[in-house]
Amino acid sequence: PSKKGKLLVLGGTGFLGQTVCKRAVLEGYQVTSVSRRGTPPSSSDASTLTAGFIDYRAGDARQKETISSILQEGGYDGVVHCIGLLFDDASGLGTLNRFVSGSGSLPDAESTYDSITRLSAFNAIEAVSEYASMNQKSDFPFVFISAAEAGWPDMAGGAQIEQYLAPEWLKRYLSAKRQVEAKLEESSDKLRPIIPRPSLIYSLDRPASYLPVGAFFVGNKLGLPFV
């Protein structure tokens, strides 16, 4: 039985979302996961170790009603937004998501940073704000997983790095992240924004991540900026 209440994880079958769901269960939460896939890949340990403790739902967070209808069931004490993709279809690198995505899914023409990241998060923020108001909850926790690079403008030389060296797809990726951060801060009268900005997220049980992770570690040891 749950010790800490209910947690809604958006994107709970993705690379990061699976880990968030598993950790939340271990911490004593009753977890509801929402994703277009519904259940995690059969090869994932999440499908065996915590299957009995996570309520997996199939739904598209780009539709606000998907989120609102689940929240209306009541009892939720927090929301974690883990939906995202590293390479959208327009980046020309979409096929690489097969290796970096937890679900192994490939983006279609409608899977843009704006629709997957910004729209799904905006819908969630609005739905959760309404839920908090109706249930007279204040300071309701809303976790949005951003990216370390979203903070580049706050670093010396960061704006110039982004303007002149960042590829176009990365600029669009960061724009979507920053719009969500701003929307969350505007909603702080009802929600408690929690915005981690992690760098490259990896797992040693995913060999495909070894090359980029190794490059990051080397760059960091050499003192390269923004690594």
Kindly describe this structure.
The protein is of the alpha/beta class. It contains 8 helices and 6 strands, in the order E-H-E-H-E-H-E-H-H-E-H-H-E-H. It is globular and about 50 Å long. The model has no long low-confidence stretch (mean pLDDT 87).
List the helices and strands and how they pair.
Elements: E1 6-10, H1 15-26, E2 30-35, H2 46-49, E3 54-58, H3 64-71, E4 76-81, H4 97-100, H5 113-134, E5 140-144, H6 158-165, H7 168-186, E6 191-194, H8 210-221
Parallel strand pairs: 1-2, 1-4, 2-3, 4-5, 5-6
The total count of helices amounts to 8
Note the gap between the termini.
Answer: 42 Å
| Biggest β-sheet strands, sense, barrel | 6 strands, parallel
- Low-confidence blocks of residues: none
Number of beta strands:
6
Helix content estimate: 25-40%
* Radius of gyration using CA atoms only: 18 Å
N-to-C order of helices and strands: EHEHEHEHHEHHEH
Shape, per Cα inertia axes: globular
Average pLDDT: 87
Q: What order do the strands of the largest sheet run in, or round the barrel if closed?
A: 3-2-1-4-5-6
Q: Which structural category fits the helices and strands?
A: alpha/beta
